[in-house]
Design goal:
The structure is a homotrimer.
Chain A: H1 3-19, H2 37-51, H3 66-91, H4 100-115, H5 118-135, H6 142-148, H7 150-166, H8 172-184, E1 187-188, E2 193-194, E3 199-201, E4 207-208, E5 213-214, E6 219-221, E7 225-227, E8 245-246, E9 251-252, E10 257-259, E11 264-265, E12 270-271, E13 276-277, E14 285-289, E15 294-298
Helix pairs in contact in A: 2-3, 2-8, 3-4, 5-7, 7-8
InterPro entries (chains A, B, C): LbH_SAT, Ser_AcTrfase_N_sf, Trimer_LpxA-like_sf
GO molecular function (chains A, B, C): acyltransferase activity
Pathway (chains A, B, C): Amino-acid biosynthesis; L-cysteine biosynthesis; L-cysteine from L-serine: step 1/2
Chain lengths: ~300, ~300, ~300
């Protein structure tokens, strides 16, 4: 590298560093106090090994050492998750009155409470696996569902993130479900409430909004939106019920949009593909779009 | 970590381990005998290097050593693929009468048969590259297609997985295409049959079901579903022709849904965007949705 | 491995190597002269650390060493980006009259020009962050937007790739945006022109074509296509304006398709969900699909 290159690079570095100076959102450089996305994704990967001990394993150990290995993984998750929770609690000023030591205790308690929810999360996931196998003629076995269905992955991450939401942890739940969104194309907000036996088939393009409530035995296909009617209100709408309520035994075929916080889809409803629904639907109903008029021309 | 922390962690570990006790699907812990998703994804990555020697290479070797390098990669693929095939054959009890040694021979034979299909797979992919370049005005060159088009990646993985399907290998083909689905948003079931010169543009949200049959020179855009009419039958529908048949020279624009096992789209048909098609379409036809009535309001 | 295995593997290797012989596109083996996708993705990751110094950091260093660390990352990006630009310039024969040394100088100049655009790119991204926070009631904070919104990631990569497009760099911009497409399901062609305060919510399935022009304060939801009317012309359409023009303060709800190079959506327009638009829309208009007729049957 000759001298002029050195000067040009120095100039570039200086101009970029200068650009970090003011207090725009993009400029945060308080590095040690930010949640760490990579650490959170690593926690997700390890939690998957706890949820599905035989599937997401490292295959390096034998069955007799399962207990030792699980202990190591669980301790590791507790350590890292607690650290990230501590960071976001401080960062979001959830408990401004607490000292750092007290905040760490708080983070520890939340982490323990979360870890104690794992058997219950696994109870729910067992029903989701059953629903996928029962609902999809292409499913060769439940193992195939666990090993290859993106819907089950998205639901697994959602069910964990949702528990952290209920424990009032900021930021981390959304980072978790957005990681699953990236892997699967399925975007479930961690704030949504979803019952047992939930089956997502194919799944790409699904959006389930923050205040959605979904009952049991619900089946959803690719491209379905359970969303808000309008977001013109922006931040003023925060906290309002903006997304629909879905009853039990509801099937929603691909491309359907169900919008609005007052829209209720009652039990045993079948929602046809590509429908656009902004009003409630009574129970035991099959709602479909009027047969689309097609035009045929000789090419 | 103080004593009460130690006790709480031990309690959590014990409760999670207790939860692994019963015989639910989620509890499989027979670690050594499960197919290994990570190993299968590694095989996919290496197979891509064999399919596209100049593109997915490690860039570490010179052209004169291509032969040696390819030999190493091919042997590696054979070793790991055989191992995974052996595991799934035993796991799915495909040949309960065979000893482990005989099962290993069987897995070896299947692996050899698959590897001998590679030149034919590459023949097909060369036509897919041609179709992408010819069909997309935004394609700068065939190299750009190979290096950056997600559709070609999804088709490449599908074409390999489909050959494993034809060789009656369980689970692995689906794990392969679901990996491609995660990378691209394009969900092609490995059981589908797809002819030469197949072009997927953009691709996110595409679903191509298990019993779909697609001819040659077919072009499909993002959000297209080639799917089933209903899955209310669940596992009872296994094996039935549930997905459509598409002829030669057919173009299907974005967001179209073509559903049902008896639906046949004949040669030279153009299917317009956002159509919902559950009946067959005769050859040389352009079928479009009737012009959507739009409403304009002053804001 | 016994002798017959050895022979079979040798046969397979030979048949695959023989298959590399002819001059099909798939057979390129000029390894050293191909752009390297892995290197380009690594450059993207490092550029994200420069764009968002506090978020995509390695968390290993303290604030006082920010300058040193940034210098290292910036030099690293310059070195690798220059190398890849040099490769694609030679590969695509952009300057056949230049010697390799002159081509390297050319690549260096382009790299410097690109790096000097970073403060301007960050100016734009700051407005995009603001737009996401203001536009989404579910956004907890701007940090959450930066750490978890896929739309912002896709826009960040697009804004960098677009600058490389303007500097006439072939192949690399598309490889960059296709990487973002894989991560987010959002497909923005690097040739598109997009103004400040751009907000993508959810995003999966969005396609924004090469010749699209988008104004300021535009908001786009999942599944929106800004595309061409037909690609029957294939390569003959290269360079033509095939994709729409969108004014300022436009909101486009999920699933809308706006198609055609002469289609202009003027300022302050709201485009309703699932609309299919192939004609221009005048300013201050809300355009929606006529209420879809739904059919209700007792199940």
């Amino acid at each position: 590298m000759d001298r002029s290159d050195k000067q040009r690079i120095e100039g570039i570095v200086q101009r970029i560093l200068d650009d970090f100076g003011d207090d725009r959102a993009i400029n945060k450089t308080d590095l040690c106090n930010e949640p760490d996305k990579t650490a959170i994704i690593d926690v997700i990967d390890k939690l998957m090994k706890i949820l599905y001990p035989g599937y997401y394993s490292d295959k390096l150990y034998k069955i007799y050492s399962l207990k030792n290995n699980m202990s190591v993984i669980i301790e590791d998750v507790i350590f890292h998750l607690k650290k990230q929770i501590m960071i976001v609690l401080r960062y979001c000023k959830k408990f401004p009155e607490l000292t750092d030591a007290e905040l760490e205790d708080k983070a520890m308690d939340i982490t323990y409470e979360f870890m104690d929810k794992i058997p219950q999360i696994r109870d729910y996931l067992e029903t989701d696996i059953q629903a996928a196998f029962d609902g999809d003629p292409a499913a060769g076995s439940k193992d195939e569902v666990i090993l290859s269905y993106p819907g089950l992955y998205a639901i697994s991450v959602y069910r964990m993130a949702h528990e952290l939401c209920l424990l009032d942890v900021p930021m981390i739940p959304r980072i978790m479900t957005e990681h699953a969104h990236s892997v699967t194309g399925i975007d479930i907000h961690p704030g949504a409430t979803i019952g047992k036996y939930f089956f997502i088939d194919h799944g790409t393009g699904i959006v389930i909004g923050e205040t959605t409530i979904i009952g049991e035995h619900v089946k959803i296909y690719q491209g379905v939106t359970l969303g808000g009617l309008s977001t013109q209100g922006g931040q003023k709408l925060k906290g309002a019920k903006r997304h629909p309520t879905i009853g039990d035994n509801v099937t929603i075929y691909s491309g359907a949009s169900i919008l609005g916080g007052e829209t209720i889809i009652e039990d045993n409803v079948v929602v046809g593909g590509n429908t656009f629904i902004t009003n409630s639907v009574e129970k035991d109903t099959r709602v479909t779009a009027k047969k689309q008029e097609l035009q045929y021309k000789n090419n």
